[in-house]
Design a protein that fits this description.
With 311 residues, this protein is mainly α. The protein is 75% helix and 0% strand. It folds into 2 domains: 151 residues, Orthogonal Bundle (Tetracycline Repressor, domain 2), CATH 1.10.357; 131 residues, Four Helix Bundle (Hemerythrin (Met), subunit A) (Up-down Bundle). The chain has 16 helices and no strands.
């Protein structure tokens, strides 16, 4: 796939300065990586098995590298789209600070290294799940779905839902119903999270030709689906408590945050479809990040409090 075909080097504002370490780090999508590492770490911490701290650290590092690798390959493949969108136009590839072949090479090498590292440190179950997450993000979401269907985020969101299962498997060597529940929590959280973003960035996606839900189905239909997903999230968020993995401290937090998330979706639904800037959608997008962070943080806190109370 040539640079001419992607049309990214026609940008007159492309930088001519050589790439820096910061540019290569940006290819790894550090914000996404931080969320992936956090949820994987929580899955590892709450798993009912002992794992040596050094082994745990190596497993988390492998997840981080795998996430970064998938991000680099994603940026390589989507560099033409990134050049057309205000949110992504300053990334290293569309600005010409990193050569496409270098980005692809970095992604492939880090993918292989992350799998070797996970296999050496933990077990084949965790390694297989990490491989599935990388392959799903690259081939199913990035290459197959992103440019073809408004369900790209719905199906492709599975890639970002693997980390807590990977962490759990790294500690236990298997996948439990609790791991599946945490997978579903992120899987169902992803559509309303990204659709909130796409509501106030819809012109970006329309200009790039990406069939995000607001572009294809319109704002009203997107808002109704966002509300539906937040409603389904409520019982799924309570699943770790209902399965007995944690207590009702987490359960109370999950219920309260999920009801607040539903309230955010209702506020977006009531807002005008042509509202400039979509402030309600912006608020929901920011809250969605807080929602997931608070729920996952509440899981180990619940276990620590339970141990303290139990003596």
């Amino acid at each position: 796939m040539s640079d001419t075909a992607h049309g990214i080097w026609t940008n007159a504002a492309a930088d001519t300065q050589p790439a820096t370490v910061r540019d290569y780090f940006a290819l790894l999508k550090p914000r996404v990586m931080s969320l992936v590492v956090f949820t994987a770490l929580i899955g590892l911490v709450i798993a009912p098995a002992h794992i040596h701290p050094f082994t745990a650290a190596v497993a988390v590092l492998a997840v981080a590298l795998g996430s970064g690798a998938a991000g680099a390959i994603n940026m390589w493949f989507e560099r033409d789209l990134d050049a057309k969108m205000a949110r992504t136009a300053n990334r290293p590839l569309p600005r010409g600070r990193v050569a496409p072949d270098d980005a692809l090479g970095l992604g492939v090498l880090l993918s292989l290294f992350s799998l070797v590292l996970m296999s050496a440190a933990t077990n084949y179950v965790a390694t297989a799940l990490l491989a599935a997450a990388i392959l799903f993000y690259v081939f199913i979401y990035t290459i197959w779905l992103k440019r073809r269907t408004p369900q790209n985020i719905v199906i492709g969101g599975a890639a970002g839902a693997f980390p807590p299962m990977i962490g759990w498997a790294a500690a236990t060597g298997d996948v439990s119903w609790v791991g599946v529940a945490l997978f579903l929590l992120i899987f169902l959280w992803t559509p309303p999270h990204f659709w909130a973003l796409s509501l106030y960035r819809s012109e970006d996606y329309r200009r790039a030709g990406v069939p995000m839900m607001p572009v294809v189905a319109g704002a009203r239909a997107t808002k109704r689906q966002m509300l539906a997903y937040t409603l389904v999230l409520l019982p799924v968020a309570l699943a770790p408590t209902l399965l007995g993995a944690v207590g009702w401290i987490y359960g109370a937090v999950a219920a309260g945050m999920s009801l607040a998330f539903i309230g955010q979706a209702l506020a977006v639904l009531r807002a005008s479809d042509d509202e400039g800037g979509h402030p309600a959608a912006r608020r929901m997008f920011k809250f969605s990040l807080l929602y997931l962070a608070v729920l996952f943080a509440a899981l180990p806190i619940d276990l620590v409090v339970a141990r303290m109370i139990g003596g």
